[in-house]
Amino acid sequence: MYLTKEEARILEGEQGFARQKAMEILVALGDIYGALDLIDIESAQVSGVSYKTIGNAGFEFLDEFSRDAKVKVPTTLNPAGMDLEEWESMNVSPEFASKQLEILKCFDRMGIQLSCTCTPYLIGNIPSYKSHVSWGESSAIVFANSILGARTNREGGMSSLASALIGKTPNYGLHLEETRGADFLIEVKEDLKTHMYGVLGYHVGKITMQPAFIFSERPALEDLKSLSASLGASGSIALFHAKDVTPEWKEEFDKLEKIEVTNKELKEEQNNFRNTDKIDLITFGCPHCTINEIIKIENCLEKNEPLCEVWIFTNYHTKKLAERIGLNDSLKKKNAKIIADTCMVVSPIEEMGIKSIATNSTKACIYAPTMCNVDVYLGDEKECISLGMK
Ligand code: F3S
After folding, report:
1. What is the Cα–Cα distance from 315 to 320, expressed in whole angstroms?
2. What are the DSSP calls for 320-372, one per residue?
3. Which atom of ligand 1 is the closest one to the Cα of 137?
4. Quick one: which atom of ligand 1 is closest to the CA of 140?
């Protein structure tokens, strides 16, 4: 891969140990994937934040790295393993909390915003059309590529951090115009509920790499967020197109081999994620909830009070807004609470005696059984809440 003189000097260690290691990571990736050079990025989203997922080894690496360099572009952070301010309300152990806070200090030293959300595009990290970025977090990657028309490959924690420290990424894959096409036309003729967009993403992710959708009705932001999450979790999808919705739709997609998807098929698919009807915890917010989703959940709870707790995951800003408009107080009366900075997958819920969750998130249903050792029930908000009343 071609390097400028300055890039070569960074590789030789002129800007210190951390940037040298970061450049080694980017050059290795570029060589593996045949990149010709490095390109400037507009922002980074760094994954690998929860102590549950990175452990002591990850912490020690970050501790060393963070003493030597700061990021060169605006950089946001994926969810941590707990609410950074109200972790005790989640029954997180003090040992876990102390490690998690040390990890956050490392990111803070590097100049990374302690945003701790998988929806950075809802809190100001909104890449411009056709800009290059380096994002970790599969759901946000799909959203950035597809809905915003930005360009990112599926980065991991290490590569997104390396890019943030250098301000560049290897120029290959979805950074190249010619790779941003579609392979199948997916026609969805019936209207879908928001959580069924998640099921659709899982279903389609098994049969295509880069789908082009035609929807009968324009999806809402929350529908697209749900679809992005499950497409990213089902296979290795990082980009989709949707007619009259996404900015890179091309007329030629109309001529692709067409696959029709029906509600009946999706309901059958949904049954793959219903392996329990005894629920310890109802969880929403994968990816993190918008304020409208929280209002909808509160409405569903209005006449119902589940026997188990309801945890609603969101970003810090949305939690504060919910507090300001009185949502927190009304939710608390219904055994529900808003939790910021983390989620049902990367927090240590398995250490809290939770054996089963009900959720509206297909992505959570894909990951939680292995990452949290829990059974799952997938349904819309009303179904999840009524299951928690039995
Ligand atoms: Fe976000 Fe956690 Fe789901 S990081 S997309 S809420 S698994």
Report:
1. 9
2. HHHHHTTHHHHHHTTTEEEEES--TTTS-GGGGT--EEEES-HHHHHHHHHHT
3. 4
4. 5
Contact 114, 84 (CB under 8 A): yes
CA-nearest residue for atom 3, ligand 1, is 286
Q: Is 311 in the pocket of ligand 1 (CB under 6 A)?
A: no
The pick from 50, 83, 118 for probing ligand 1's pocket by mutation, whose C-beta has the most ligand atoms within 8 angstroms, reads 118
Nearest CA-CA partner of 304 in 280, 333, 274: 333
Can you tell me which atom of ligand 1 is nearest the CA of 367?
7
Residue whose tokens read 């998807």: 261
* Strand partners for 358: 282, 377
What does the mean pLDDT of the chain come to? 96
Given the DSSP bridges, would you call strands 375-378 and 309-314 parallel, antiparallel or unpaired? unpaired
Neighbours of 152 (CB within 10 A): 31
Residue with tokens 């993190």: 288
Chain centroid to CA 108: how far?
Answer: 21
Segments of the chain with pLDDT less than 70:
390
Ligand 1 centre distance from Cα of residue 139 (Å): 8
Dump pLDDT digits (tens) for 192-205: 999 999 999 999 99
Look at ligand 1, atom 4, and give the residue with the nearest C-alpha: 118
Distance 45 CA to ligand 1 centre (A): 14
248 vs 149, 173, 212, 218, 239, CA distance in Å?
A: 7, 16, 10, 16, 10
| Whole-prediction pTM | 0.97
**Beta strands at 168-170 and 38-40: parallel, antiparallel or unpaired:** antiparallel
